[in-house]
C-alpha cells in the first residue's frame, strides 16, 4: 500500500512519542545553550594568566630630568602565566592620572613577560616603549591593565593609599 507509514518495530502510543520528542528537544536546547558559555571560556585568557608582575617607578627620585635613559629605567612588567600566547593588541596600560599606553600589534607568548618602558626606544619581544618625554609612574600610583574591550584585567598600586 502506498502512503501508509512504515514501522520497523511495534508502533508507540501517541503520548509516548510526544513525550520522547519533548525530552529530545529539551536536551538539544540545553546543549546548545551551554555551548557558547563553554566556548567563550576557551577564547579568552583567564584573569590570572595575564597580569602586572613588577613595577619600577620614579626612576629619578626628587627630579624629573627628562633624560631618555632615566625614563627607560621606569617600567611596568606584564606577564602571561598561561601556556598559550595572548594577543594584547588594543589592550591598555594606564596610571591614575590617565596617561595611557595602547598595545599595538603585540602578542605575548605563553609563560613570558614584557616590560613597557616610559621613554623612547625600539620595540622588541621583551621590551616595549611608550615614547614619552616625562615620567609617568609616581611614588603613589596605580598601574591598570585593560583588555581590548576595556575590562580591567589587573591593577597594581604602591605608596600611600594602596588598593589592588
TrEMBL record:
The keyword Signal applies. It comes from the Bacteria. Keywords: Signal. Pfam families: LTD. Residues 1-39 form the signal peptide. InterPro entries: Lamin_tail_dom (IPR001322), Lamin_tail_dom_sf (IPR036415). Residues 38-160 form the LTD domain. This is Lamin tail domain-containing protein.
Amino acid at each position: 500500500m502506498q502512503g501508509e507509514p512504515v514501522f520497523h518495530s511495534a508502533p508507540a502510543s501517541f503520548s509516548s512519542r510526544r513525550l520522547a520528542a519533548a525530552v529530545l528537544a529539551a536536551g538539544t536546547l540545553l546543549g546548545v545553550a551551554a555551548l557558547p558559555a563553554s566556548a567563550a571560556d576557551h577564547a579568552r585568557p583567564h584573569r590570572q594568566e595575564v597580569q602586572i608582575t613588577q613595577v619600577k617607578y620614579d626612576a629619578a627620585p626628587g627630579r624629573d630630568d627628562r633624560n631618555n635613559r632615566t625614563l627607560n629605567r621606569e617600567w611596568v612588567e606584564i606577564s602571561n602565566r598561561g601556556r598559550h600566547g595572548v594577543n594584547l593588541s588594543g589592550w591598555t596600560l594606564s596610571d591614575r592620572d590617565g596617561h595611557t599606553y595602547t598595545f599595538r600589534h603585540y602578542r605575548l607568548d605563553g609563560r613570558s613577560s614584557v616590560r613597557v618602558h616610559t621613554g623612547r626606544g625600539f620595540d622588541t619581544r621583551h621590551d616595549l616603549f611608550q615614547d614619552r618625554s616625562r615620567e609617568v609612574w609616581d611614588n603613589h600610583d596605580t598601574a591598570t591593565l585593560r583588555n581590548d574591550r576595556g575590562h580591567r584585567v589587573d591593577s597594581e598600586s604602591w605608596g600611600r593609599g594602596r588598593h589592588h
